[in-house]
Sequence to fold (447 residues):
Amino acid sequence: MFNKVLIANRGEIALRIHRACQEIGIQTVAVHSTADRDAKHVLIADESVCIGPPPPAQSYLNVPAIMAAVEITGADAVHPGYGFLSENARFAEIVNSHDITFIGPTAEHIRLMGDKITAKQAVMDAGIPVVPGSKGEITSDSQAKQVAEEVGYPLLVKAASGGGGRGMKLAATADDLLEAISTARTEALAAFGDGSVYLERYLELPRHVEVQVLADSHGNVVHLGERDCSLQRRNQKILEEAPCPVLTEEERQEIGGIVAKAISKIGYLGVGTIEFLYENGEFFFIEMNTRLQVEHPVTEAITGIDLVREQIRVAAGEKLSFTQDDIKFRGHAIECRINAEHPRTFVPSPGKVREFHAPGGLGVRLDSAVYAGYSIPPFYDSLIGKLIVHGANREEALMRLKRSLDEMVIAGIETTLPLFRDLVGDPDVISGDYHIHWLQHWLEEKK
Ligand code: ADP
Fold:
């Protein structure tokens, strides 16, 4: 096992990783920008190193500074968290080339899954169902038209390097196709430095359902069920739950089995998420995330498995301590992403937190790096906390969510707490009857 892990991240996820390390008995090193001197992840870690000024490019994405911090602290592993360098294959290579363990999959797997075109091909070859569309990149107008004819409209033009809900353009009819492709190409080139795009059937009212996997280096792979992340705004997840309210036990075992088999075939290591759109009883792969997800706690709640601990254990070469049959799904869990944003306009609201009161009680978990008196810097993602509730069933989880949201206080800044207080009373949310566009419609209606 590792002696010291450097956590190349900030905010709630840095704390989450620190907690897992502490329970295993591993020392932690926090890295931080000058804007984060008083951040909780810095205060709580065993050691900390300042790696640069506030802009992420000069600090949390500054590979030479992070490697220098590894060197001076003598860390023997790096945990990248999510975002920042977590899906940067080059960073994983650099870490490994210094005989330090990158806590994640191999650089080859990050690269394979980081390009949506190669990812789609790889999982398709391994037996996972995908969204019908072009076989690979679109390189000519005539090829685009031919694919469109075969697949039908509406079509989605997607960037191979897209991420965070960006790099997608809808072509409703044949009239829009070529223009959508050219805009998507230009935008993708500007945003990701890679203009390759592909075509996919646009699913009208699907749910977003994703399967969590965990693999060790001894050939063992398990799936930990699914999460439903259909409540999204601009393709960004807002609320997640496990299990998916509309999936049958049969469907769950079937898709879980297909995914675990495919992941084993691919030879993947660590935690990973296979994301699907789910419509009319069918699953369609959209992408694989080769890292820990923001929403991993809902899976932890219903399985009782510490995903971060297991991720660290398998990275250290240990065997999974349980088999698929040992994994039992218990009850229902819901997570709300609390952002420092206005609850209706979603304008970021950094600043000083005057008051902070965390909800508590049975089945309530709060992962947050905020404390009273803390000033939220304006340079980073607006996620400031995750409220996760667990109940014996969905009804109890919702009841607990309502109660904890009422209890929670964050004063001094705007947060999305009032949005969740409204959502939790909505009949569609209560019945679980929603799809990926539901929230956008709901927000427009409430304007
Ligand atoms: P990103 O890497 O940007 O998160 P994804 O491929 O995971 O991109 O897609 C993000 C979201 O975009 C999905 O959760 C879904 O809401 C929407 N989306 C992606 N592909 C399709 C599709 N073929 N049809 C309809 N919606 C889609």
